[in-house]
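ZP: hey, is the iron/sulfur cluster complex queued? I don't see it on the tracker
AM: it wasn't, my bad. submitting now with these inputs:
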Amino acid sequence: MNTSLAQRFIQKIALVYPTAKRWLYRFHGGVFPPYHKSLSLRQPIRPQLIPDRLILPLQQQVGQPAELLVEVGSYVKKNQLLAQSHKDANKDLVVPVHAPTSGFVEAIEAYSLPHASGLKAMSIVIKPDHKENAIDNVLNVNGALPETPQAIKEILFHAGIVGMGGAGFPSYAKLPKEKGKIHTLLINGAECEPFITCDDLLMQTKAHEIIQGAVIVADALGADKLLCGIESNKPEAIQAMQTAAAKTRVEIHIVQTVYPMGGQKQLIQELTGIEVPHNLHSVDLGLLMMNVATYAAIYRAVTFGEPLTSRLVTVSGLGLESPFNIQALIGTPFAVLANAAQPKVEIDYPLVMGGPMMGFQVQDNQVPVIKTTNCILANPPEPIEMQMPCIRCGECMDACPVNLLPQQLYWYSQSHEFDKVEKLNIADCIECGCCSYVCPSHIPLVQYYRHAKSEIKVIHAEVKAAEIAKQRHEFRLARIEREKLERETRLQAKKDAVKKQVADKLAQAGDSPESAVAPTQKSSPAVLAARAAAARRAAKSKATSTKDHNEPESDQLSPKTPVQEKMPTARRKAIEAAQKASEAAGTEKNPKTAAKNAAMAAAKKRALAKKQEVDAPPFESNDRPNETSTATSTEQRAANIPDVTDASQSTQTPDLTLDSTSEKLTKEVDDVTQNKRQKAIEAARKRARERQAKPPETN
Amino acid sequence: MIEALIIFIGLALLFGLLLGYAAIRFKIEGNPLSNQIDNVLPQTQCGQCGYPGCKPYADALSKGEAEVNLCVPGGTEVMILISEITGREPKEMNAPDEDTQIKTTAFIDEDICIGCVLCIKACPVDAILGATKLMHTVIQSECTGCDLCVPVCPVDCIEMRPAETTTVNWQWPDPADAAIAAITPDQGSEK
Ligand code: SF4
Ligand code: SF4
Ligand code: SF4
Ligand code: SF4
């Protein structure tokens, strides 16, 4: 009684001081635009209209596109699943696509999306056959109500239900996993935007479905309180909802008619008194709000197994003779609906999706109705008011329902100081347009905020990408380092093994010279030579091993390792012996000279490999002529070319010195050399890049 | 007199201990200046600055060995940040900013690729996937657009393409541009 007295008093004051109405509700700011709602309320809901073709984008408002399940030419029935998600649905926010009516798939092409960008996306185009062949209960529900959040999430996912109030966030992703996390379920029937009446009509005609849908969700989530907020300018809807809610625990609250009462955080504050903090979602506070249309869709999905394939759409605007509401099939082109409302003049201006405050102009009037299309607005273009400088009147600040400082946001947005814009909590701006509405200088403030928001998003994405790139680069450096170490240890192990073998062999040879060195050998001088060579080599390798160990060049030998390790020991021994023998036999029978030669060959080989590595960069420079090559690198290249030729020639030398008796061996050695060469070149390339990059600029 | 001395010596000791403790307790690992610079570099790891990556460039900058205007992908913006951090004079960029602004990523024509693995070795962030003699491909989300893999490909099958605009990365236009565009013809007609 008291409150109503106060209310009446305030309403009286409002006659002389309009903003006094702001005292009537709990959130800050808000505006009172002309509503024009009666335009589309003059007619009852129109019967369904099946257009000549339906365009179903694979991607809805938010999230990733779904995966196709049909082909061009295939016949689809109403409610049939056309595209499904195989990915992590929760992360990618994929929404499945169902056929709104039966017909043939005419094309799968890129079509303009009902998105402010006018970008195109893959869409399924269906040519309806007007037969309405339907698959009943596509979702395979058995009438049992979902008991757990998981169960209802499953149904919502398969039904392709998204938030139908505007944002289009997939409902399955919005619901929490744990039962009892939500204590209060809220029903948003405020519908505060001018012109739009689809929720109003839905509440008038399907109040029962809305209430039942809400109760189903509340039961599944374990919420005990159910609140519904409806703006005071919809008396018939309030009446219908109150009747439908009579025997349930749903409480219907009549809220003030103010824009943006239908904003999620605003209505939550109005109904519960809780102001959702800027860094939290309402779900974190145990509150979940969904639109009336979403609840109705949930009811149909749970009880009839029907996916979301049509929705109530308001077709209105000052450019239309007879605006109406219609249960439109998802995918109906905007122009078809607008033309059905008898436009006063031919519609050659862009239609608006959504209301006049938050809606946006579509780039192409043939864009389809999607699950979030609540209104198609045909308002003939008005002359654009000339934008004036900000006079710092503070009107926008008083109107902002989120308590932001729009004039400051504008100031920094237009000077592109996005870090400052971010500090002023632009992320909390709901883009309601109140500030632009009241601004006496006609500054399109929201446009600035939208631009700033997308810039900030890009900046964040870049920072994140840079962080990832840094990590990956560091990981790569660490990996290269680790691989080098591993190679060295492997090499060391192998060397030790060889040393041991040689020692063993020598020991054995002391006992029985002939039997030790295998049947492959025929002449004893050769055997002797081999032994001597082996001894020398062992000594040599011992001497150089420390040096090799510390140098990256040591990878020259590594390719051998896997080949040799795979061989049976006997075979390896034989090959080794043969190699030594052939080296000896190829030059002279004198063991001493042979040994010397062998040692020299080995040293040569090593030196050569090393040289190769040092000289290799020119190869690369030649390969990359249009790189950032400076004069220095060109000189380098020129100076180094002869060396390369040298190197590649002398690479042959060790092979040539080998005797042809062991062809297989030669081949293997060849392979190894080949491998070695490639490895060396690659390693050198890497280093060269670093080196090439370094020198000139430092001075 | 004595009391004053005792008090001051006591205070000096106390603060000395406090400072000493703070120096150990709040010690910053690594080179803070170089890390700070590294954080503002674009991490493209492209080597256009003449160093084998962003970190080495940051190190060189922190030692005062490098010019502030070498990072090409970062452009003037990053140059200014660097000069602010290092407290040195900003310098004109050598390369024009414009053509570096559009972010591109590498694409491999998978029909032409011979699987030589050269590009894998060139990629500073391991964004290329493939094995010897097998087709290679670029993980788009990890590619930094550094161009390093393009010149090494022996069959020239790698090309840099600008990132595709989708509803996810689409940006609202700057209303200031629109306003200017709306005003300019008016002025023209008046004159
Ligand atoms: S658009 Fe953003 S800044 Fe402007 S009134 Fe709405 S919430 Fe506030
Ligand atoms: S309402 Fe417009 S003119 Fe007034 S302070 Fe805000 S931006 Fe400036
Ligand atoms: S030029 Fe390339 S490597 Fe050098 S700092 Fe810039 S992004 Fe990093
Ligand atoms: S460098 Fe070229 S050919 Fe070689 S693997 Fe990479 S893409 Fe394929």
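AM: back. Chain B has a mean pLDDT of 82.
ZP: great, adding it to the tracker
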